[in-house]
Structures are given as C-alpha cells and as structure tokens.
Design brief:
Elements lengths: L7 H15 L8 H18 L3 H14 L3 E5 L5 E4 L1 H7 L18 H17 L6 E7 L3 E13 L6 E9 L1 H15 L9 H13 L5 E9 L2 H8 L1 H19 L6 E4 L4 E8 L3 H16 L2 E3 L2 E3 L3 E9 L5 H17 L5 E3 L2 H15 L1 H6 L3 E10 L2 E16 L3 E4 H11 L2 H23 L5 E5 L2 H4 L4 H11 L7 E5 L1 H5 L5 H11 L2 E6 L2 H4 L1 H5 L5 E4 L2 H4 L7 H16 L3 E5 L4 H9 L4 E3 L9 H12 L1
Parallel strand pairs: 11-12, 14-16, 16-17, 17-18, 18-19, 19-20, 20-21
Antiparallel strand pairs: 1-2, 1-5, 3-4, 4-5, 6-8, 6-11, 7-8, 9-10, 13-14, 13-21, 14-15
Helix pairs in contact: 1-2, 8-9, 9-10, 12-14, 15-17
Pfam family, one: PAS_4
InterPro entries: Biofilm_reg_signaling (IPR052155), EAL_dom (IPR001633), EAL_sf (IPR035919), GGDEF_dom (IPR000160), Nucleotide_cyclase (IPR029787), PAS (IPR000014), PAS-like_dom_sf (IPR035965), PAS_4 (IPR013656)
Length: 615
C-alpha cells in the first residue's frame, strides 16, 4: 500500500506499473512490493524534477509588475518580448520593441557600441554586464539616461541561454548628479569655475610640454566693500556678475583662456598658447578699461577699478605653486603701488622680497632671543646746545647675519606680520625703564624720553592701557613721556587716535606731532588734538641745509608763527650741521636733533651724554 500522504495520481501510476510488471514472466516480486517500490521511484522523480508551472507563473508576474524595464531576447540578441516598464521608459508600446536588436536601443554611436560589445561578451564568454549608465533613445523626448544590466537566462534545452536586458530609469538622478558636480566646480553667483576647478585647469595646463607659454592673472576689485556696504549686498552681487561677464568677454576664447572666481571679489585668468607678455598686458588693460565702464543698477552707474598681478612664463618653467605665488606677489605689488593698475611679476624684485619676508617672519623669535635693543637720538635746545630737551628712543635689531638694522628696515615687515604691537610694548617698557634709571641718577636734570609710535601702535585701541601699565610699572609720572605720531596715524579712519590722545593728555603725557607743512599743522586745531610739541621734518628742514632761499624762509616763518599762535613748542629733526641748526634757531625753532649732535647713541653712550649735559 502506498504511504500515507502520497499523491493519489502517483498511487495510480505505481499500481498500474506494478500490475504490468507482476504479469511479466520471470518476475518473482509480489505485486504489493513492486507497487511500494515504484511509488518510491515516482516520489523521488517528483522531488527531483521541479514543478515548472508555478515557477513560470511567478516569473511572469514579476516580469509584468517590475518597475524595471526588461527585454527578453533570442540567442542573436533580437528582442522577442518586452515588459510594460520598458515601454514606459522608452516612450513606446512594448510590442513595438519586438524584433529590434538590443544594441539599437542606444542613443549615440558610443552607446550602441557599448551595448554591442556587452552582448558579445555575454554570448561568447558568459560575462554578464556590470551596471553601467548609458544614453538610450526615447521615442518622443530624445536621449535619456538609464542604468543598464545585460545578463542571461537558461533556455528550454540543456546548455542554451538567452540574453535579458534590464534598464532602470537614471535620468533624474543623473541630471541631479551633474548639477551637483557643476556646483562643486562652479561659483553659484557668477557661473564661473571656482577655485577648485581653476586649480585643476592650472595643473592640466602645466602638464603639457613644448615651447608654449602660460599666463596667470590675478584680479581684485578695488574698494568693493564700499559698493557692498554702501549700496547693499544685492547690488554688490550684480556688480560681481557684471565683472564676470566682462572678464569672460575679454579673455574667453583667447589663447585657451579660462576665467574663474576665486574669492569674494577676487578673480583669476589662465591663458596658454603662443603669446608674449605685451600681448597678455594688452588684454589685461582692455579688461581694466571694460570694468571701468559703468554698470547701471538701481539708478546708479557703477564702475569698478581693479588691480591685476600678471605672470607669464614657459609651460615647463616651475610648477603650479610657483606660478600662483608669483601672481599673488605681482597683485600685492599692484595694490601697494596705488591700486587700479597691473603689475608684471619681476623675478629680481621677488628675490629681494623673499629676503625681506624671511626677515619679517623671524621678528618674533628675534624679540624673544634678545636681538633688539634701544637706540637713542638726543634732542638739544638750539639756544643752548649743551642742554638736552629730550632723548628720542627707538629700536635697533642686531641680526646675526645682516648686522645692525634700523627701525625703517623692519617696522614695515612688523606691520605685515602683526608684530608692531609686541615691538611697541617692548619699546615702551625699555625706554621707560631707562627713564626711571636716569631720573634716579640725575634727578631733575634727567631728560624726557620721546617714543615715536608707528601707525599700527598709534591706532591701537589699547594704547592708553599699554602706556599706563608701563608708567605704573616704573613708577613714573606721565609727564616724563613724550609720544610722537604723524599725519597718517591721525587721519587713519580705523583707529582711535583722537580718543586715545585725549585720555593720554589728561594723564599728563606730552603729545608730539611730526609735520612737513601747513596742512599737517592745521590738523591740530581742526581735530582738537591735545598736542604740545610739533617737529618739523622733511623738505622744510632740508631747504635750509645749504643756505637760505627767500621762499623757503618765508614758509618756515609762517609755520613758526602759526605754531606760536597755537601755543606749541616747535622743534626739528634731520639737522645735519651746526650752520643749519643756527639758521633754524634764528627763525624760531627751539630744539633739534640730527647728526649735528649725534646720529645715534647706545644706552651707555646716552648715559654719558646725559651726565655731561647734566653738569
């Protein structure tokens, strides 16, 4: 008997074959035993042979409902069936795809070739295609992007396979990726390539060989902050777009020209080809002229000026870092020279500047290592040159390689590196320490110390605090200190000179202004400066070095008379001879300093000088 749970159809098959075998002569097995044996054979056969119908139903349902486009092809790659998803994707009825070759679905020749190659690899070597993105043909909308996979399915006969094409819609995601890729390498505001893209373009331009030239131009808009703050950021953005358009019109298409926006108001131009520096300069001048033409926005005709740094060299000379550095240095020089102009990179100037910048970079270490010292210049009364009016204190740098450096050689570098305040603090501390020592030794005969403030220190908001701290540390009255400044510091809009000087004057410090003419002198009443001394400097003093010209004498007398009206004491600097000193005295100058007394003096020398004058 069959085992419980056996399929009725299999039981009938087994029983029929058992009866047949039982009637066969020579068979010694009983009918029941044969029946059980054959039933087992049939059940094993059923278990070994899959049920095709359910599997076929499952595949058909998946094929029809799949959101992925599917095309079934014959062994030659001709489509025999396509699902609805593929029809929707390609904008046609699925039936219209029958009979087409799989490669013919590609949009461009490149895509057709890739599909043809993938089909050959599949049918010849059995290598399924990894998903790749291709352009396919849409019947109405033109090319569209699809993620394509080409594989195979087994056929009805053993050893046969048939190609299957699967396509997922990638058009939107591809366009989004392209947009993001574009944004990653382009400036959103102007549409120009950004710094990243420009860096890549520069590396590519320098990768070539041959005798071609490469030119790099850096441009900065002069005073763009005035436009942005005065007319609003919206107008500023429109101006930047206008600048980008003008630069593109001048440079794009010229010598493989590429224009990029590197920063807020900074642009760059890259050129490569057969050209000379004068040709590049001509393009830059054309661009500067175009930028100066007003752009009318919101009722305002806005023209901009720009500074440009230019470097031109053979492609094979140096890498990108050298080229970028050279363009930046040339731009910096253009701005230092007054802006609204271009400057061509000069290797000789660069070599000199490198030495200067190396010097500026080590100021902090030199200060910490004790390489700075005070250097003095005495100011004497012209009516009695044996009497000291004051001692001017300055800084000298004893550089281990370059020797003795005066302040005019390193103060501009300190301004760039941010070391002006530390140097000024050290100068105040050391000069007031020396003053305290003089007052202790010489009493009332000790001179005042005069410290010239570099612009960065004069405009420092904490100047009053710095001075007060040092006066208190050395137990000195403020009257022992003279602080000297100049026109540039007084007129510097970013500083607080007027407020600081008012407080310092209230403390008792003596304030000194260096002047070279009537305009400088009139700053005192115009701004209510609490100045007690003025120091004549420059041409007005030099004019009396070798004689007396009527116009020069008249100018000097006017300055002296005006100073007396303002109740100011007037001195002079840069006096080289006793004859020059005498001429100045005769026309009302009270005190002077310069080489007619001493160019400079060390700490010990000034101590001896004070002692000699004190007696």
């Amino acid at each position: 008997m069959p085992e419980p749970g056996s399929a009725p159809g299999l039981v009938d098959v087994a029983r029929r074959w058992a009866e047949t075998l039982a009637d066969t002569k020579g068979v010694s097995l009983p009918k029941e035993q044969l029946e059980r044996f054959l039933l087992g054979v049939a059940e094993d056969a059923v278990r070994a042979e899959p049920e095709h119908q359910p599997a076929l139903q499952r595949f058909s349902k998946l094929y029809s409902a799949s959101p992925i486009g599917i095309a079934l092809a014959d062994a030659n790659g001709t489509i025999v069936e396509a699902n609805a998803a593929l029809g929707r994707l390609l904008g046609c009825r699925p039936s219209s795809l029958r009979g087409r070759e799989i490669p013919d679905l590609g949009s461009a020749e490149h895509d057709v070739a890739r599909l043809r190659n993938a089909l050959a690899q599949l049918m010849t070597h059995g290598r399924p295609t990894q998903q790749e993105r291709l352009l396919l043909t849409h019947s109405e909308e033109g090319p569209l992007w699809g993620d394509v996979t080409l594989t195979d399915l087994p056929g009805d006969r053993p050893g046969t396979t048939y190609p299957v094409l699967m396509v997922a819609d990638a058009n939107e995601i591809h366009l989004l990726q392209e947009q993001l890729r574009h944004q990653n390498v382009h400036d959103v505001l102007t549409g120009l390539p950004n710094a990243t893209a420009f860096g890549n373009a520069l590396e590519t331009a320098l990768a070539g060989s041959g005798g071609e030239q490469v030119a790099l131009v850096y441009l900065d808009i002069d005073g763009f902050k005035v436009i942005n703050d005065g007319l609003g950021a919206g107008i500023g953005d429109q101006v930047l777009r206008g600048v980008a358009t003008k630069l593109r019109s001048v440079f794009a298409g010229r010598h493989e020209g590429a224009v990029a926006r590197l920063s807020g108001d900074g642009f760059a131009v890259l050129l490569r080809g057969d050209f000379t520096p004068p040709q590049v300069i001509a393009l830059v001048e054309q661009a500067l002229e175009e930028l100066a033409e007003p752009i009318y926005l919101g009722g305002h005709g806005i023209g901009v000026s720009a500074s440009a740094g230019i470097v031109v060299r053979p492609v094979a000379d140096g890498g990108s870092e050298d080229l970028l550095r050279a363009a930046e240095i040339a731009l910096h020089r253009a701005k230092e020279a007054g802006k609204a102009q271009w400057m061509l990179f000069d290797p000789e100037l660069d070599a000199r500047d490198r030495g200067r910048y190396q010097l500026g970079a080590v100021i902090a270490g030199a200060l910490e290592n004790g390489e700075f010292s005070l250097i003095y210049q005495p100011t004497v009364k012209l009516a009695n040159p044996d009497q000291l009016a004051a001692v001017n204190a300055g800084l000298r740098w004893s550089h281990p390689e370059k020797g003795e450096l005066d302040s005019d050689e390193f103060y501009p570098l300190a301004q760039i590196t941010g070391m002006t305040i530390p140097l000024g603090r050290w100068l105040l501390a050391e000069s007031l320490a020396a003053t305290a020592r003089w007052r202790s030794r010489f009493g009332d005969a000790a001179p005042d110390v005069c410290v010239r403030l570099p612009t960065r220190l004069a405009i420092e908001p904490d100047l009053v605090l710095l001075v007060k701290e040092q006066l208190d540390r050395h137990n000195l009255p403020a009257q022992a200190l003279r602080l000297c400044t100049d026109r540039d510091s007084v007129l510097d809009a970013s500083g607080e000179v007027l407020d600081s000087f008012a407080v310092l004057a209230d403390l008792g410090a003596q304030l000194v202004l260096t002047i070279s003419g009537s305009d400088d002198l009139e700053l005192i009443p115009r701004h209510g400066l609490p100045v007690r001394h003025v120091i004549l400097s420059g041409p007005v003093v030099d004019a009396l070095a070798d004689g007396e010209n009527d116009a020069d004498v008249r100018h000097l007398c006017q300055l002296v008379a005006r100073a007396k009206e303002l109740k100011l004491r007037i001195g002079a600097e840069g006096v080289h001879s006793h004859e020059q000193a005498e001429r100045l005295r005769r026309y009302g100058v009270l005190a002077a300093r310069g080489s007619f007394i001493a160019d400079s003096a060390t700490g010990d020398e000034v101590d001896e000088l004070i002692e000699r004058h004190a007696h």
